Amino acid sequence: MSDKRAVVVSCAGRGKAHLKAYDHIEGARAVACCDVREDRRQALAAELGITGYADAAEMIRKEKPDIVHLATGPMTRVALMSLVSELGVPLCTVEKPVAVNVPDWRALTHLEQTSATKFAVCHQFRWQRHLVQCQQAVAAGKLGDMRFLDISAGMNITGQGTHTLNYGRSVIGDARVVRVFGSIFGWDRQDATHPAPTASEAYVTFDNGVRGLWTSGPISPRYGDPATVWQHVHVSAYGDEGRVEWQEFGKWEIVSPRVNRCVACTDDGGWSANNLLAQAEFHKAMLAWQAGGPAPGTNLADSLHECAVVLALYQSALDRRPIDLADFNPPDDLVQRAMG
User: Which of 14, 143, 176, 338 is spaced 20 to 30 A from 27 at the CA atom?
Assistant: First the structure.
C-alpha cells in the first residue's frame, strides 16, 4: 500500500510543525506545501524536499492528498474548508479556533453536516503524553466519580480558551456543555483576526453532571513564566477520591489513593519535543478515523460545539443570565455587540 499523502496550506511556524510530525508516522509522508509568500514556501519546500505551490486549489488537484492541513488564520476557514470539501479530500485539519464569529460558525455547521470530508481542529496537546495519562486515570475510575473541572489560560478565549475547553473535556470523557453563566471585560484589539474579550470567566455545567470554572486572560492564575501570557494553560479535574492536574508548561500529577502515587515533573523531554510527538499522534488519529476508527475528540462537530459555548458565554455576559445550549440560537451580530 502506498503512503498516505499530506500537504499544508501556509508555511509559517504551525504549518511547518504539521509536516515535520510526519517524521514520526509510518505509512504517511509530506509531499507539498502552499503559501502566497514565495520566500516561505520555497524555504519549507527546500528544507523538507517537497513541492511548493502558490495556489491551494492547484496543489490539491495536482498532488491528490489524503489529508490537507490548513494552518491559516480563522478568517480563511470557511473558504478553504469549502474548497477542500469540493475537491473531495478525505481528511482535513484546521488550526484553532475553528470560527470567531456567528456567520462562520453557521456556515461551518452546514459544511460539517453535508461534506464527505472528515474535518478536525488541531488541539494537538490533547495527545500530549502527560495529559493522556491524566485522561486514562479518570477513565479507569482512579478518581472515583468526577465532580469539578478547573481550566484556565493566560491568553484570551480566542487565543487559548478553546484549547483549555477541549483539553478539559478530554479529561471528563468529552462531556458536552449544557449551560454557561459567564462574564467578560474589555476587548483585545491587538489582533483583529482573533477578536476576543480581554478576559472572560464562566461557570459551566456539563451533560454528565460535572461543573466547572473556565477562565481566560489576565484574571487566570499563573502556572508558567509570569513574564509571558502564553505559558499558563492549565487543566485540573477533581473526583470523589482524588484529582489530576496538568500544566502545558509546568508540572502534572495524579493524586489518588487508588493510584497511591503522585507524579510531578517539569515536562521531561522538553515542550517542543512533546509538542511534535503530540502533533504526530493527532495525525495518526485522523488517519485511523479514515480507516474506520473513532472520530478524534477534536472532530469538527465537537469543535463547533465548543465554539457555540464561547458564543453562549458572550450572550450570557450581555444578558446577565445563564444560557442553555440546547436552545441557543445566537444573533449574527453577537460578537460585534460583545465588542461594545
Answer: 14
CA distance 145 to 180: 22
Q: Is the peptide bond before 97 cis (omega within 30 degrees of 0)?
A: yes
Residue in this structure with the C-alpha cell 499544508, named with its chain if needed:
8
Asked if residues 21 and 28 have their Cβ atoms less than 8 Å apart, the reply is no
The pTM score is 0.95
pLDDT at res. 149: 98
Q: Which residues pair with 236 in a beta bridge?
A: 150, 245
Could you say which residues of the chain have pLDDT below 50? 1, 267
All 3 cell numbers of residue 152? 484556565
d(CA 301, CA 304): 5
Do 243 and 144 contact (CB within 8 A), yes or no? no
- Please give the radius of gyration of the chain, using alpha carbons only, rounded to the nearest integer: 20
How far is the C-alpha of 155 from the C-alpha of 133, rounded, in Å?
25
Q: From the centroid of its chain, how far is CA 23?
A: 22
Helix (H, G, I), strand (E, B) or coil at 303: helix
pLDDT of residue 68: 98
Cα dihedral 117→121→127→128 (10° resolution):
150
Q: Alpha-carbon dihedral of residues 245, 251, 255, 259, nearest 10 degrees?
A: 110
Q: Provide the sign of the torsion angle of the four alpha carbons 196, 75, 31, 51, taken in this order.
A: negative
- Beta-sheet strands, E only, within 248-305: 252-255
Burial of 259 (0-12, 13-18, 19+ CB in 10 A): middle
